[in-house]
């Protein structure tokens, strides 16, 4: 996969998730960060750092992005969320507008 087709999402702890750009675009916030004119670092580097989102939550968000792509293409499956991460996940999802 070419670098232009991927995006690097970096958690608060510095863990890096390299995912398909198409999957990352599920988030309106990430889409705006990567496609806005003006030469922003996120657009040029193809990476976004989230200093407020922990690694386990960002991992679950990445899983959701891929699940969302499958769901919109007609594959209806359940997306499981562990109860203990629900609040933190909802706050991150609200920020990412997903």
Automatic annotation (TrEMBL):
GO terms for cellular component: nucleus. Pathway: Protein modification; protein ubiquitination. Gene3D superfamilies: Potassium Channel Kv1.1, Chain A (3.30.710.10). GO terms for biological process: jasmonic acid mediated signaling pathway; ubiquitin-dependent protein catabolic process. The keyword Metal-binding does not apply. The keyword Nucleus applies. This is Elongin-C.
